[in-house]
Amino acid sequence: MLSFNLHYQRDDFTLDVKLLTLPLLTGVFGPSGIGKSSLLRLLAGLETPLSGNIQYQQQVWFDDKTHLASFNRPLAFVTQGSHLFPHLSVAQNIKLSKRLDDQALAELIESFGIKALLNKNAQQLSGGQAQRVALVRALATQPKVLLLDEAFSALDRQAAIHLLKILKKWLNEHAICTLMISHNPEDLVFFSDKVLLIEDSQQLELGNSLELINQYNGKSKQAMVLSVERSDRKADRGWRWFKFGEQYLLAESPEALDEGVHLVSISPSNIVLSKHFVEHCSAQNQWQAEVLSINAVAGTCYVDVRLEGVVIKVPISPQAQQALALKSGDTVFLMHKAVKLHNQF
Ligand SMILES: Nc1ncnc2c1ncn2[C@@H]1O[C@H](COP(=O)(O)OP(=O)(O)OP(=O)(O)O)[C@@H](O)[C@H]1O
């Protein structure tokens, strides 16, 4: 597996991070400008550390004696732009760097659904198609390590979800060690059980994706991810009840939704708090939670509540807090409009 210990400096930016064993698939997230892309560029050999080491299994890529050039490292790097050669066909783009044998390449092309695109010029492709081809081209080099830097962020949600599902299957089947930077928490949770949080340029935290992302997003008031499963509870056509822990979530969802676990993002600012369950209310989702603490910051009260193990920081006005008089230990109901859940993860 991949391991690294890096000391890096560029102008006033420093990165000092170490990880001894990376899981096969790992998401990477953290605040903007903290050094996520720099880490991937260092691993790829596009930037040079001041000191440290990078090693893949027994092969040293970098240490005080070795500095393997980027093209000698068995890796592929895919970023937001597809960087295809525009005047070449899709087939030519892929063949330029191919190392897979013909049968494996045909399988790859089939899995990623790009057969019909092979004779098109790269400049004729839509953004989503180009990104698919870029991934196929990267995988055709038979990398041992794949680095993805926001590779899906230019795609619409349906395309990104579809592509990520295909990619994850391929990476697992071919045991390709992958680090994926994404700003989308659902993508990260779907991609792997493990994420690497870079919250500080001198410290990495590797942990359970759902827990670590919700812990971080809870602090920074960003969307929370709930992992829900279909339930038998009856709902009108086009709607469905899902279960998470002891609670139910109503979502607008198509009949042909996949079985299993789905991920839903909930924004804390869309939550309304009530001390009692409210009958005759348009908000169909009312979840019982426990108040942990209340903190006033710059004219807003942040109520930390625990909902099925997830801590959510709900912002309310000081007037609302005056009316509710919430205190830690109280039971509170979180009201949220029904969400949309379309063929998501
Ligand atoms: N080409 C460059 N030249 C000089 N400084 C740079 C360059 N690229 C990035 N930086 C700086 O290096 C630091 C780390 O940037 P990096 O792109 O690695 O962060 P990031 O976590 O990937 O951010 P984001 O999530 O916004 O993409 C930032 O302070 C950034 O301003």
From TrEMBL:
Keyword Nucleotide-binding: yes
Keywords of the record: ATP-binding, Nucleotide-binding, Transport
Protein name in UniProt: ATP-binding cassette domain-containing protein
Parts forming coiled coils: none
Classification lineage: Bacteria, Pseudomonadati, Pseudomonadota, Gammaproteobacteria, Alteromonadales
Domain ABC transporter, chain residue ranges per copy: 1-225
Keyword Repeat among UniProt keywords: no
Record organism: Agarivorans aestuarii
InterPro entries from the UniProt entry: AAA+_ATPase, ABC_transporter-like_ATP-bd, ABC_transporter-like_CS, Mo/tungstate-bd_C_term_dom, Molybdenum_import_ModC, P-loop_NTPase, Transp-assoc_OB_typ1
PANTHER family on file: ABC TRANSPORTER I FAMILY MEMBER 10 (PTHR43514)
Pfam entry (one): ABC_tran
PROSITE patterns per record: ABC_TRANSPORTER_1, ABC_TRANSPORTER_2
Any one GO molecular function term: ATP binding
